[in-house]
Records
---
Amino acid sequence: MADVPSDAPEHCPGTSSDQAGKSSACQGCPNQNICASGAAKAPDPAIEEIRQKLTTVKHKILVLSGKGGVGKSTFSAHLSHALASDDSKEVALLDVDICGPSIPKIMGIEGEQVHQSGSGWSPVYVEDNLAVMSIGFLLSSPDDAVIWRGPKKNGMIKQFLRDVDWGEVDYLIVDTPPGTSDEHLSIVQYLSGAGIDGAVIITTPQEVSLQDVRKEIRFCQKVKIPIIGVIENMSGFVCPKCKNTSQIFPPTTGGAQRMCEELNLPLLGSVPLDPRIGRSCDEGKSFLTEVPDSPAAVAYQNIVQKIRDYCSSHTTSDHPF
Amino acid sequence: MDSSEKSNLHQVKHVVLVLSGKGGVGKSTITTELALALKHAGKKVGILDVDLCGPSIPRMLSVGKPEVHQCDAGWVPVYADPQQQLAIMSIGFLLEDSDEAVIWRGPKKTALIGQFVSDVAWGELDVLLVDTPPGTSDEHLAVLENLRKHRVDGAVLVTTPQAVSTGDVRREITFCKKTAVKILGIVENMSGFVCPHCSECSNIFSKGGGEELAKLTGSVFLGSVPLDPLLTASLEEGQDFLQAFPDSSTYTAISQIANTLLSSLDA
């Protein structure tokens, strides 16, 4: 796949292509001999290091969506809270949205710092059994912009997987940015040795969102990540005054349900719009404990149970590359 | 190479970026509605959609998937109206299968954006709006590097009211400062939902975050656009919301934002 270094000559064929080191564009490139020898085609040694590091992590789940702002981070955070409500489980939440990390705020740990120890970076703990890592902890102020091109983002993701001292973990939840680009390819590539249980795909009901989400599903199929299921977020809003439901983001093409039928994917559930969800996120609290009996919290719990069931019926395939 | 860029953008009077650190806040929606509002004001408008992994503009303007033609000056943009007042270029036009994922790392995206900026024969335009993906990364740097040779008037930042969103937009403001892009103003989208049954207004994604952010950062606040199911439905169908619902409060909000923007460009 695309593996053209950022400082490569124009028309670089990519370090793992058959043409590496041999095409006309390679003439004069300082790495021509390395590429021509085939050394660059070998898998990144970090993949094996990450596999060894993550042998203590039982289940690895990606939260994906082609579309932005559909609730990936909200869901990742609440999935982590729900899984960690069982004291016997250790949960880790990794935020690989390098340019727009929302997890520290949603988890109520904005401004925390990451500490270095002998065994690597220590994640920030929200509860005794809930660890979080995000680039947000490495920034000096909330205004800090991470203006990085792909290769630097990839390096950061590699470090998050290889250099963070996660310890014994039952579930590692990975929250991703929107799209199908560097961050996504990197997380899949670096976890290829350790194995990914599957991906949860988030969408909103309208076609403008579904059209991007179909691309993300295609991405999962291409890189061979099993899809645990699809969640429809922001589906319907119940007016707190008159109790009538409005479709703010109308499912003009049948919403997530129709898409799942067409693509033969499980629909894990639908979560209604509830202003209290957004407020809980802004305040860094868990909506599930703030308003546990609301329809949205019940929907969340049902979805989380399906993910638990999926993981327990499915053991990460240890496929050495 | 420089001369060809000049020939393709030299008749473009103003270039405005539509940015947000956060995804799904309505960058493409605001881009589309601003373009339509400017068109109704008699301007010639272009939209360049550089969201390569999730292009939404073709659907929102219901242009389908026409073939992009070549002419001597480069790619001919796709026109959304027979009068050719609204020109569009998007990667959506170049994909064979609309479900196909564009799984590209940065350098490839940078190369395509370079082409998009230099090789589209826009002709004469009053305003070129550039719709961007969320974040502060490859696409943003690429589009700036390439446009800068011509001109960039500034950026409109879009946010939703809640703190999780304004937090990301603060980072985008830092991006603008570091890259010396003028902030033309902040738009707050999805602010308040008026129940069609009882007219009660619910602030689903909180309220006032955009205005607060504008104050905090010393930027112009262009206005708020409410959550309006009629607006989302229009965008789904690719209908011209401004033409269909001229009496709605959303219409008033959008036209005011467009007018403020236009006068700041002409100033």
---
Amino acid sequence: MLGNFIGVLFDGVAYGSLLFIISIGLSVTMGLMNFVNLAHGAFAMVGGYACVVVMTRLGVPFLASLPIAFVAAAAAGIVLERSLYRRLYRATHLDQVLFSIGLVFMSIAATTYFFGPQQQPVQLPEFLRGQVHVLGLDLGTYRLFLIAVVIIITVALTWLIERTRFGAEIRASVDNQQASAGLGINVYRVFSLTFALGSGLAGLGGGLGIDVLGLDPTFPLKYMVYFLLVVAVGGAGTIKGPLFAALILGIFDVAGKYYVPQVGAFVIYVAMVVLLIVFPHGLAGRRT
Amino acid sequence: MPELLRADGITAGYGDSIILEDIALNLAAGESLALLGRNGVGKTTLLLTLMGLARLRQGRIVFNGEEITQLPTHRRAHAGLGWVPQERFMFPSLTVEEHLSVVARPGGPWNLGRIYKMFPRLEERRRNLGNQLSGGEQQMLAIARALMTNPRLLLLDEPMEGLAPIIVQELMKVIGQIVRAGEFAVIVVEQHARLALELTQQTIVLDRGRVVHRCTSEELLRDRSTLDRLVSVA
């Protein structure tokens, strides 16, 4: 019983970690640029398919395919930011939503055309498969790996945002675009790079997530609500908020589906409602 | 002195509204200019126009031999415009020291050491966040931050607004030092006309978006009745 509970907790944390990697970029886009980007999951999908393509067609090993997923999604992010997103920074939220949901449908259609509608396989390397025994518990090796990756990314991101000049430029641009530009910070460049970073992390999450979330052309639509939940509950524009939110939602989702399978899919929304009533600005939202 | 700034036929505003009409302005390197006028006559708009933050409809701006009329705001800052906004615009998520280092453009006389020597208070507060400062400290930081960009022209927008008299005195001493040193040119917008006149060499008075008077600051300081007529708050 207790072992079960810890197992569920562990799976929830691993699942939440994955949600965090994918969603952190959305938190930045919504917090920093005030842009509602419903197509964020499409960048995760780009990463996922990049992984599958280099693994199955070029024989690249799984671990080496992850940086490729990051780069592919970041590149897609830069191209789309420069060509399309930038034009809509000052548009209304309705325009942004319509534009980005349009991108979602285009990404679904394009992916179906090139790769077909079926689930994509992923071949995890031997050492990431199976279970390890820790203190009498059986923990999935791949889930441990996911948690480790998220710890590394969180530390690296925190360092980037809190300790580097680029991080200070991001924070200054978030606080006040006009003042930042007036003092020589190239806010457009900061936005582009941040958008690319967020897209890249989503792509990395998409690659890491194939084994857990699956990968098919409807991916951006299927998980859109989850990514938005993480940002809404966590508060946009911080790292800490979405991290806690993703972990909490991950745990509730897994626990709900395990303990009360009849209503399992709703548990996460109950959690959202309660959390938003208690923390209307999100767990660690920036007050504007 | 070589010419630093020349603005001709400036007509500008925000959106569809026009605030400034046909303004001409020039400034030599190291020169100081007071921009006076009653509330709402367009003084701040003129500074924002120079920074590319208002909508310029006509006219051209040449700065340091380069036409900057179409340049994006951050490139104007790189060209040497040091902006001290009226609202001060502190960054709530940056420490005092980060405010200074994030905008620093090395290659000039201003660096962290010199700033801290001039404003010891900021060094004491260097780990505080931008929104944890008093009004006077915020103003010091806004000025210090602009200095860290090593400007050729400092734009001071109502630096004394809302500050206690004792802080005004303290700040005036420091501003006076840097303005008179002539390392860079200065444009001061100020409601307290006398403070601005004592600080500067030239004066321009605006009324309803147009230049209505040009003279030396000394002249206007002596001519009480003209000063009252042009800028007194009824």
